[in-house]
Amino acid sequence: MKNTKKIIALVIALVIVAATFAACTGKETDKGANNSKTDKLTGAVSTDGSTSMENVIGALGEAYMAENNGVTFTYNPTGSGSGISAVKEGRCDIGLSSRALKDDEKANGLTETTLALDGIAVIVNPGNAVKDLSIEQIADIYTGKITNWKDVGGSDAEIVVIGREAGSGTRDGFESVTGTKDSCKLRQELTSTGDVITTVSQNTAAIGYASLASVSEKVKAVTVGSVEAAEANVQNGSYVLQRPFVLVTRTGEALSAAAQSFFDYATSEKAAEIISAAGAIPVK
Q1: Packing angle between helix 80-88 and helix 169-178, nearest 10 degrees?
Q2: What is the pLDDT of residues 77-92, one digit of tens each?
Q3: Residue 279 pLDDT
Q4: Assign residue 271 a region: left if phi > 0, alpha if psi is -120 to 50, beta otherwise?
Q5: What does the buried/exposed string (b/e) look like for 60-96 if buried means 16 or more CB atoms within 10 Å of the residue's CB?
Q6: What confidence score (pLDDT) does residue 39 get?
Q7: How far apart are CA 262 and CA 242, in angstroms?
Q8: 245-272 per-position pLDDT tens digit
Q9: Neighbours of 145 (CB within 10 A)
Q10: pTM for the full model?
């Protein structure tokens, strides 16, 4: 009888231990499951700025959201100057600029991170016979010293000079390289890369400039000093009309978890293939 009681007591003790262990294990499992749900990244990432970066930033945003379906990514194509102002004033997480930041912008609390390089293509209508221009000829056209296409090997027609608006990163890059800052004489100042391409495509006498990443078959990119506006030539420096694509953030101020995650993704080696496919040259 005593042995029977001992056996029963032992069984009860083992059952209690087993139940306690199962309960603890269950709690740990539940805790792990809850952590998994909690760790899923959520939130929003807002970017604002360069219209030249539309293809690149759009491709990166789409790929990022595919891997992080709890995050919403937005891009507002307002131009480099507006994007720089937007991030400075806290109206977006990350500004987008197709030019390097100026010293005063850095001194006023902004930091630049170069995402990629881009060539600035000099474009004409496909019906224009001109195939090559030197930097000097381009500068003379934009400052009004050359006004007829016949003076650079084209037909007898007045050159219609198209450019971008003040504050455009593309304009800043173009004028810096050609030495035409504050001296361009434009027939039209347009507010986006797309508008420049469309306008040139509709006028056989027009000339313009646009991001290499955005050039389509609607226009013809002339060679500059006999060098083609191509990715390899931008990368090796032989194509001189080029500028950086820049991510702009507030110096010393942490991004949100979602914005930091996108920033890390965009500047990783993983993103290089996406940037290249979008027509720009990754720096990673």
Answers
A1: 120
A2: 999 999 999 999 999 9
A3: 86
A4: alpha
A5: bbebbeeebeebebebebbbbbbbbbbbbeeebbbbb
A6: 66
A7: 26
A8: 999 999 999 999 999 999 999 999 999 9
A9: 12
A10: 0.73
Contact 175, 181 (CB under 8 A): yes
Check residue 40 and give its pLDDT: 86
**Which portions of the chain are predicted below pLDDT 50?**
1-38
In the block, tokens 């420049």 appear at 196
Rounded to a whole number, what is the distance in angstroms from the first to the last CA of the chain? 80
At 38, list the tokens: 């909690």
β-strand pairing of 110-124 with 43-49: unpaired
Which domains does the chain carry? 43-117+244-282 (3.40.190.10), 119-242 (3.40.190.10)
What pLDDT does residue 284 have?
A: 74
Rounded to 10 deg, the angle between the 257-266 and 54-67 helix axes is 120
Tokens of 213: 């990443």
